[in-house]
TrEMBL record:
Gene3D superfamilies (UniProt xref): Histone, subunit A (1.10.20.10)
Record organism: Macleaya cordata
Pfam short name (any one): TFIID-31kDa
InterPro entries (alphabetical): Histone-fold, TFIID-31, TFIID_subunit_9
Principal location: nucleus
Protein name, as recorded: Transcription initiation factor TAFII31
GO biological process: RNA polymerase II preinitiation complex assembly
Polar residues bias spans: 161-170
Length: 180
């Protein structure tokens, strides 16, 4: 923050003017960069106005810029750079017209509508195919095996049939994300 006893003697004349403008507007505390930012804005504005005034002077065929060119440049800058808001009455009339139209009816119930289950990340993204029970023929063979003395080594054909019946199929949708 800027103190009252800051070195005013070291400041340029333009910075002192900006400082006195801030003081007259009731701004007592500000950062030192504020003065530099106002000076930059001020210089840029003056350069723009003088450049426009020079263009108007050259267009009129005058050898030098005169006060009328500067007034015209300032007037065009004010008209095109700083637009005034419409009067309060106009804004109130526009608001009344807009508020006459009712809001559309809400299709869904209260709350946030959720996407369908297939589009959510919490839905299961796999399918399990659990095999059906073994055919009755295989059940009869096992009963015969029990009757036949309990052969601990069943024939190879019976083992492969049992392995094929107990396999599970797992599939994933194609739209699933690939792991990185």
């Amino acid at each position: 923050m800027v103190d009252k006893e800051d070195g005013d003697e070291e400041l340029p004349r333009d910075a002192k003017i900006v400082k006195s403008l801030l003081k007259s507007m009731g701004v007592g505390e500000y950062e030192p960069r504020v003065i530099h930012q106002f000076l930059e804005l001020w210089y840029r504005y003056v350069v723009d106005v003088l450049t426009d005034a020079q263009v108007y002077s050259e267009h009129a065929g005058k050898p030098a810029i005169d006060p009328d060119d500067i007034k015209l440049a300032i007037q065009t800058k004010v008209n095109f750079s700083f637009s005034q808001p419409p009067p309060r009455e106009v804004l109130l009339e526009l608001a009344r017209n807009r508020n006459k139209m009712p809001l559309p009816k809400s299709i869904s119930g209260p709350g946030i509508p959720l996407p369908p289950d297939e589009d959510t990340l919490i839905s299961p993204n796999y399918q399990l195919a659990i095999p059906k029970r073994p055919p009755p023929q295989a059940a009869e063979e096992t009963e015969e095996d029990e009757d036949g003395g309990g052969n601990p080594n069943p024939p190879q054909e019976l083992r492969t049939d049992q392995q094929q019946n107990t396999s599970q199929r797992v599939s994933f949708p194609l739209a699933a994300k690939r792991p990185r």
